[in-house]
Amino acid sequence: MSAARQFAFGNARVRAMKARLLGPEDAAAIRGCGTSAARARVFQELVGIDSDDPPEVFGALFSRLIADYGKVLRSYPSGSGLFLALLRLHEIENLKLAWRAVARGYPADRWLAYWRALGPLESLKRDQWRDLASLRQIVGLVRGTPYAAIVSTTFRSHEADPAAAELAFDHWASRELLSAAQALPATERRARELAVALLRERDLDALHRGITTYGLAPDLAVGCTVLLSNELRAEALAKLVEATVESEPLGPHLLHRLVRDPHGITNWRALRHTLRCQRRETCRRAFLEHPFQLGPAVAFLLLREEEVRGLIALTEAQGQTAVDEVLDHVLAASLMGT
Q: Which CATH class is domain 80-183?
């Protein structure tokens, strides 16, 4: 099959999968339920999972997501580097999970249930992590995988600092995604734009966690970013850091560098929400453009991931306020968002 024909096949397949994504009407049906039992029934009708147990729902939804990754990887003649870099944003969570657990001496039965099973696409085999007793063993376990270098470096630098190790792993995964996006040909403008949009959100999250959760000095927190530290000048970064710490207004000069329309954005939370909505609209546009490009595939995977993340959060939400929070913010970057 020629590359053009395979692109056409891949795009047709991705569009068919996109048609099965949940939309605003499904969000409205969930929001309209008056009780948790009614929400559970609607949820089961929408996703076909007959369980309200969060770990079971997580496993079922995540396995579907991984199946979609497999279909995309098999359907396109190029782009595997970018698709795998997106997938490794999930696998790095497994590495972070194991690192935290081993560093704190937790037994395997306490944390392996939260492992994200990547099936045939995994580099880290879940069962091999069951008997780990030290971080040094992790270094040996990941030899021959894409994570070997970053684990070795992190062990040398942050063996006694789990928070710094977590930020290092996140930074590595973001750098890998940026490298994969930059390696795309110039014609893949939309796929690169979507990857950069996701990276900018990850940067903001790393900055926020570094300062507010881990207590890093601002310059160290900025060093955890892969885009912002190059995109913004020192004074703009200082304003962003100030807003991160104190929830101060961000200012139009800075916002114009981050979002298309800064109107109404007055704080950190609103900025993150706007970026997620902006990414959703970019995903929608990707399906209206040239059919022989990777944009639609990347857009579908990002929309699917956000749907899965939101649906999992819905199973854990307690009360209508929490449900509305999920629908309004967690699902903002999915087609269920409004």
A: mainly alpha
